[in-house]
Amino acid sequence: MGKDTVHFKCHHCNHCCTDVVCLPTPWDVIRIVRDTGADPREFLEFITPDEIEEVATNDPTWLRCSGQKYLMALRRDENGCHFLNKATRYCSIYESRPLLCRLYPFKLLESRTGVFKGFVLHDKVGCPRHRDGVYQTGPLYQIYREDDTHQDDYHQLVQVFNRQRHLGKKPEDFISLFIEGLPMAKTLPESELPSAPEAKRAAG
Ligand code: SF4
Ligand code: SF4
User: Fold this and answer.
1) Ligand 2 binding pocket includes 13 (Cβ within 6 Å)
2) Residue-wise pLDDT tens digits, 26-76
3) Residues near ligand 1 with C-beta < 6 Å?
4) Of 18, 105, 150, 189, most Cβ neighbours within 10 A?
5) How far is the CA of 167 from the centre of ligand 1 (A)?
6) Rounded CA gap, 130 and 7, in Å?
7) Which residue ranges make up each domain of the chain?
8) Sign of the alpha-carbon torsion through 54, 171, 84, 142
9) 14, 16, 17, 77, best to mutate for ligand 1 pocket (most atoms within 8 Å of CB)
């Protein structure tokens, strides 16, 4: 396989949409709201460290509120992700899904100096990794880099939130920090928004 292809075919087992916690960035949330009109307070939840083991306790995306730590995640119920169509078992916001959903189940390979070497299937995620297809991973690198770039902005937003000390502060208040700019974002051309581009953190 070349640098831009991997032997892989998704068999829609739904593991990544039912058993994996999806952590969207604020820009993923803005894109979903803009494209679907969904209310972020209905499709987001804020999870505590006992609900997720894979994120280090010192990860800069932890929100701090009333002595507790939270991560922003796509809401789930007993059937999986809020956006998983329960009848078709397909993603109902496929074109607008979060960057990490787009990167799953691939893992980035880079040289020590950061030169892109391609993607492989991540062996530490639950995907069955069927190899009966050829997947074009070329565009994923741009998505990965984009996600990486926006992480710094995300961390700054979290710092602003964590410095707030007002009475009655709730993790849901974090949404207000970035969603209030949505009217402006709605008027931006697609090229100026983080692109809608499959790992919930698998591509690290
Ligand atoms: S947003 Fe779509 S692709 Fe991502 S976990 Fe939810 S249903 Fe799956
Ligand atoms: S876990 Fe793998 S095979 Fe199953 S739906 Fe996700 S990407 Fe497709």
Assistant:
1) yes
2) 989 988 999 999 999 999 999 999 999 889 999 999 999 999 999 999 999
3) 17, 22, 74, 81, 83-84, 91, 93, 97-98, 101
4) 105
5) 34
6) 8
7) 5-192
8) negative
9) 17
Q: pLDDT of 69-104, one tens digit each?
A: 999 999 999 999 999 999 999 999 999 999 889 989
Provide CB contacts within 8 A for 104, sequence distance 6+: 16, 20, 122, 125, 127, 198, 199, 200, 202, 203
3-state class (DSSP) for residue 186: helix
Query: For residue range 147-202, what is the model confidence (pLDDT) as tens digits?
Result: 777 888 899 999 999 999 888 999 999 999 888 765 555 555 555 544 433 334 43
Q: Measure 194 CA to ligand 1 centroid, in angstroms.
A: 18
